[in-house]
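Lab notebook, bench 4. Still working through the backlog of constructs that have no structural model yet. Next entry is a single chain of 646 residues. Request: give me the structure tokens for it.
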Amino acid sequence: MSAIAGIYHSKQEPIKLEEISRMMESFQNFPADDIRVWYKENIFFGCHAQWITPESICEPLPFYDYQRCLSITADAIIDNREELFDQLDVKTNERASIPDSKLILLAYDKWGEESPKYLVGDFAFFIWDEKRNRLFGARDFSGSRTLYYTLNSNSFAFSTIIESLLSLPYMKKEINQEWVAEYLAIIGMIDVVDQESTVYKNIKQVPPSHSITVVGEEVRVKQYCKLTSNRKLKLKSNEEYIEAFQEVFDKAVTSRLRTNQLVGAQLSGGLDSGSIVSFAARSLKRGGRKLHTFSYIPPKDFIDFTPHHLMPNETMYMKSTVKHIGGIQDHYLDFQGKDPYSEMGDFLKIMEMPYKFFENSFWLKGMFEKAEEENVGILLNGGRGNLSISWGSAMDYYAILLKRFRWLKLVNELNQYSHRMGGNRFRNLPFITRIAFPIIDHMFPKGESYDFPTLINAEFAKKTKVYDKLRAFGINETGWFSETDIFKQRKLHFEDVFHWNASNTIATKLSLRYSLWKRDPTNDLRVIRFCLSLPEDQYVQNGLDRALIRRATKDLLPDKVRLNQRVFGVQGADWVHRMIPNWGIFREEVQQLQKDNFTLNFLNKDTIARAAKKISSHVQPEYAIDPDYKTLMRSLILHRFMKVFH
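Model written out:
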């Protein structure tokens, strides 16, 4: 719940007060409930604290334990407190007064460098072990909190934000060309596959699921957590699976309601956020508290151009959820006057790096702004739900049944699927067959396809050998993952640790600016492990895709939402419509970009030139789905960021 920083001099040189001052001043634009530093000879810890949980109020951070000769600074909320208290033999009457930082310290005192394995929650921390002359830190399994570091011959420094490290007198702002190459070559929302690198050459990050140990001049980075899906849970009935899921999910949600402020939640018209809201509101009601929901809607003058199965405005579904659950103070936000282009400069300051999710940037930030106004301390979110609680593609599961010759079950499923969706029961069979046997796609000619434009300069790509590196992670020269089997994709998603760096970066840095935390129960380590252990027939069943969460929320969500398989919410479809007032300025900056030789060393000039020719003074909302306009926005974001270096 803090911005943290520190310096360690391996050659016993004393820490300069100027360096401490510079690092702590880098946090001054963030609100704080307390600001403290601790230093001793060659070690310094700092904490710019924001009190989010009851236990954090007046928590001394950094904290030095004289008995154990351990010091800690931490940015953490630990969710399995009771389990840890039991394992650490902490007396019952002492538990309520122990903050999460001390709990981490006690865990380290017992388990040493293995301690992160026992922690569930969102955390980044460093501990100075005076007896062993050892600096030890860790980041939670999905990297929910950022943790950057830099080192030279005799100095190791760390911080929650990059600016803090750049403030040190010996640091230079140098671009990391390999990072930029990966960022441009990857088309999807992943920033880079190099789990340790940042956009700055001499600044690294502790990867998710990793710890870091510094002894003298030796630095060791080690992965302490690996998520696999090999072990399957076997229960006697569907009902037992649902009861087991409800128990673990309720624990994940309830443990994230721990705040001395109000509790909020981002709410769309779908299953993930709706499920979280239903469990959270039920728990809060027992304590006589209300849940505040924040929902994004397009402006009133937006004309929907999307197909009938997509819905940019989910108000009807969101209000149905709110009414059914009760105990909710709902907020519907159209963010009139906000758009991704005019927010670009401020968003780059927040991110400290280029970013790709510009379509949603203005409302993600707006949610935090509104939540802060309402005195919300915790903002619940279901960002990882599609791969955990609401996993389950019917067509892909039916392809498995086809491949395994389980035709009787397949026919039964197709009967029930067609009953729910309408149409002939075998109308999807050709599509299912192509999924089951991809070679069929190569046997028959297909219509003309269109790939997302290549954004990286060909010479730059060759110089950095970026595609050689990406191939090792299953990404081909189109910029997409070559693996088409979604079950293998899901497995790789949890085994690799780089997927969530970008989204967790914005979550951390928005939380610092607005003094509230985004918490995702669908990303709870206990929930993830449970969901990975389930057999696939729990996710697709009786004609229902995403069947686990649909069955688990019976009576908790309205059937209009719970059983909806026909319409899908789509957020950010209005991004071009919102830019209409700034369209002229947008066109001018694209022209400036085409003259920026420094940035064009990295970007594909032909791609930008072709896209720029399409820009006219007449703006249509449909441009929002045009890859060329998305390419121009991504290019402008890099163009703006690169001004730091020239």
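Notes after review: The chain has a mean pLDDT of 94. The first helix runs from residue 17 to 25. Flag for follow-up if needed.
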